[in-house]
Each structure stands twice: as structure tokens, then as C-alpha cells.
Design goal:
This protein is mainly beta. The protein contains five helices and 29 strands. Helix 4 crosses helix 5.
């Protein structure tokens, strides 16, 4: 990182500073060895353990739905530099034999009159698991490469296809990225308890450590109308607000233990709505006081990852556990639910609202489906999400609208960022 200028903001107290310094040591504890007993014995098994399971949960192989040999090769070479090597032939032959394509997880697709199209870009650094693409005010698309092979934030010019990647401080392992109104790019340090600001012109980075070591994993971030950066802290079970003008960070603990706050959106009043990733609740955070109100979902086993609001301030969420989408009326607390087209195992994930139409994906299917739900008519339409290489390569975990009403999503394993053109009927 010889070409990067990194400024570390001082913490407000020596205690906080010492706590932050201790974080990397805590995070570096070696994980338990993954269980690979389900993998059949063969020449390729130790190669898979070296090239694949060093980064991935081994269950991803089973959950993929299987591929042909050609598609296994395309998937592998989108993640690690194996092209033209004998190892690629050995691994792909083994995987295609033991994990061939199946239809068990195919989505149930709903036809309709809306026409859309997909535009794919493959990111430069292999194995980075690109995620959370977002459009900046100047039209550039930014993303983060979360996994250790990446640990970067990247910029894509959608007009020319030109890309540039910026390495982040060690162990940032970014989860999300969002621009501010001044052109700065903000990244959540999911791996080292920080938030990073990048000035794309000077390439200077400013690092904001969390003032509490328990806030170890900043997650999703959103700016309010006053320029304050709000963020969730999933495993730290907190919600925070950072003032870029002063560097001050306020943190509040979520009222439900181990609820794991996840996604964030603002309503028309400026209050913040947050999913509970691990418990059946949704939070409303008062913008002025940071007081948190919990709304309980109707089923004890429900949980959701992301949410979005329509113009009437109705809160839309996906019930990942039960395969439903739901609408919460904040004024009455009433909740209405609809089964997702692919059923109880569809696992709705990202959620975005564009022109009062709800868009989300069914992450439990292979390929995952992009679903459109019209609240006015209560009708669904869905499409299989493709990848540039012609195979399915990873679920979409976040979707965000562009200024012209398109949708940005990603496919981590195929190393793709995808723009969904929603205006093909125009």
C-alpha cells in the first residue's frame, strides 16, 4: 500500500485505544477445522481443501446445486488462478462427477409482462467476493471485495468498463460501501471494527475505530439528510452514528439480546429501520434520541436480512426462514405476509423498493431468482439471475437502486457485479 495515505483518527480515550489495538489478536484466533467428511475420497480432495475450503465453507459445494465440468472450471477460474493448470482438470472432473447439475433447487419462475435485462461486469481481483455495489453521485459504481483475497474497495465506470481497485488497511474485510454527497467513499470494516473513508481524488484513507471493542463488526451503512453516517453492528448487537465533521461515534445497544442488527433504511420522518438477523423483530430507531422500538414479527422462528420502505412508509421485509415477504404498518403494527413464489425454502434476502415496486431475490434457489412484487395488485414476476460466464455463481446479498431507476446487485462466487435494467418496457 505504498501509494496510499492512511490517517488514523485518535480515539477519545486511552482505554478505547488499547481496546481497539487488542481487536486484531482476538479476531485472529484460529477457526475450527471445517468438516470435509462428506467429500468423497480422491486425488482432488486435498486440492479442494487447499484451493477452495481455505476460503469457503465446504457446504457451499453442496449448496451450489452442482455444475457440469465446464461450468465448474469457469467457476473455479473466476475465484483462483487455476486456468491452464493440471489441478483445474483434476478438481473439475472430480466435482462434476460427484456434484453434477441437479434441479432440486430450481426456482419457481412467474411469467409476466415486465421486460428487464442484465448487464454483467467481472471484477479484476480473483477470489475477492465482490458485494454491495452502489452508484455514487457522479455515476461511478463502487463495490467492496470482502474476502481476504480482496480486502479492497473498487470503482467501475459503467460507460467505459474501466475499473480501479484500492487496497484497504489490513483485516478491514469490508462488508459494505456507500458514498457521501461530497464524493467520499465510506467502507464498513467488518473484520477489524472500523469505518474507513476514502477520498477518491487523493486516495487518502481515514480510519475511524469503534470507541467500544464490543462493536467489532460494522455492517451496513446509510447517510441521513444531515450527512450523519448510520450503521449497524451485527454481532456486536449495536446501532451507531458517525459524524464525519467531528469523527464522533455514538453507539446504542439493541434491546433484544443477540438480535444481530443488519440492514438499514430511513423513513420519510428520518427515523431508521433495521432488520433483526437472528430474532423475529424489526427495529425503529428515533433519529434524534437513538431510542429503539422493537416490532415483533408474528412467528417465533422468523428472521430477516434486509428491508425497504415504499413511499407510504410501509416497511417491507423478507422472512428468510419461512419463505415469505411481509409488510409492516408502523402506525398500527399490523403485519401482512405473502408466500414467495418458490415456497418455504426460497429464503428471500436483499430487498429494495423502486417506484413503489418491491424487488428481492430468492437466495435459497439455484440459480437464485430476482422477484418483482407489485403491492398495488399483489402480483409477482420473477427471473433467474444469470452470470456473465453462463452459469450460476453465488447469491445476491444486496440490491440498491440507481439514479435512473435500475438495480445494482452482485454474484460473489462468479466475481460479478450486475446492473439490472428495469426500464426495458420504455
Amino acid at each position: 500500500m505504498s501509494n496510499r495515505n492512511i490517517a488514523w483518527l485518535p480515539l477519545t480515550s486511552l482505554v478505547a485505544a488499547l481496546s481497539f489495538v487488542a481487536l486484531p489478536a482476538l479476531a485472529a484466533a484460529p477457526p475450527a477445522a471445517p468438516d470435509t467428511s462428506f467429500l468423497p475420497e480422491g486425488e482432488a480432495k486435498p486440492l479442494i481443501e487447499a484451493f477452495c475450503i481455505a476460503c469457503h465453507n465446504p457446504n457451499y459445494i453442496v449448496q451450489s446445486g452442482g455444475y457440469t465440468k465446464e461450468h465448474w472450471q469457469q467457476l473455479l477460474t473466476s475465484m483462483v488462478p487455476l486456468e491452464g493448470t493440471p489441478q483445474l482438470e483434476t478438481i473439475s472432473e472430480y466435482l462434476a462427477t460427484n456434484f453434477p447439475p441437479t434441479t432440486d433447487k430450481n426456482p419457481t419462475l412467474i411469467s409476466g409482462d415486465v421486460q428487464i435485462s442484465f448487464e454483467n461486469w467481472q471484477m479484476p481481483t480473483l477470489g475477492q467476493m465482490p458485494r454491495d455495489p452502489v452508484e455514487a453521485p457522479d455515476g461511478m459504481i463502487w463495490w467492496v471485495g470482502q474476502w481476504a483475497a480482496g480486502n479492497l474497495v473498487g470503482r467501475l465506470n459503467p460507460e467505459t468498463g474501466e475499473m480501479k481497485e484500492f487496497p484497504l488497511p489490513a483485516r478491514t474485510l469490508p462488508h459494505s460501501v456507500t458514498p457521501d454527497s461530497h464524493g467520499n467513499i465510506w467502507v464498513s470494516g467488518n473484520g477489524n471494527g472500523t469505518i474507513v473513508k476514502l477520498d477518491p481524488v487523493t486516495e487518502e484513507m481515514t480510519v475511524y475505530p469503534m470507541p467500544d471493542p464490543a462493536a467489532r463488526d460494522p455492517h451496513t451503512m446509510v447517510f441521513d439528510s444531515e450527512g450523519i453516517l448510520w450503521f449497524s453492528v451485527q454481532f456486536g448487537n449495536m446501532i451507531g452514528a458517525l459524524d464525519p465533521a467531528t469523527g464522533d461515534i455514538k453507539l446504542v445497544t439493541a434491546p433484544v439480546e443477540n438480535s444481530r442488527p443488519y440492514a438499514m433504511k430511513f423513513d420519510s420522518k428520518g427515523d431508521v429501520w433495521v432488520n433483526c438477523r437472528n430474532t423475529p423483530c424489526i427495529y425503529r430507531v428515533d433519529h434524534d434520541t437513538m431510542e429503539i422500538t422493537a416490532f415483533t414479527l408474528p412467528h417465533a422462528d422468523s428472521w430477516s436480512r434486509r428491508l425497504a420502505l415504499t413511499s407510504d412508509d410501509m416497511v417491507w421485509y423478507g422472512d428468510t426462514e419461512r419463505g415469505l415477504i411481509g409488510r409492516l404498518n408502523p402506525e398500527t403494527g399490523e403485519i401482512t405476509e405473502w408466500p414467495s413464489p418458490s415456497g418455504p425454502n426460497s429464503e428471500p434476502y436483499f430487498m429494495e423498493v423502486i417506484d413503489d415496486i418491491v424487488w428481492y431475490n430468492e437466495s435459497g434457489k439455484r440459480p437464485d431468482a430476482l422477484v418483482r412484487f407489485d403491492p398495488a395488485t399483489e402480483t409477482f414476476q420473477s427471473w433467474a439471475i444469470p452470470s456473465a460466464q453462463g452459469f450460476f455463481g453465488g447469491i445476491a446479498r444486496h440490491g440498491r437502486a440507481t439514479s435512473d431507476g435500475d438495480l445494482l446487485i452482485h454474484q460473489g462466487s462468479s466475481n460479478n457485479i450486475i446492473r439490472v435494467h428495469l426500464n426495458d418496457n420504455d
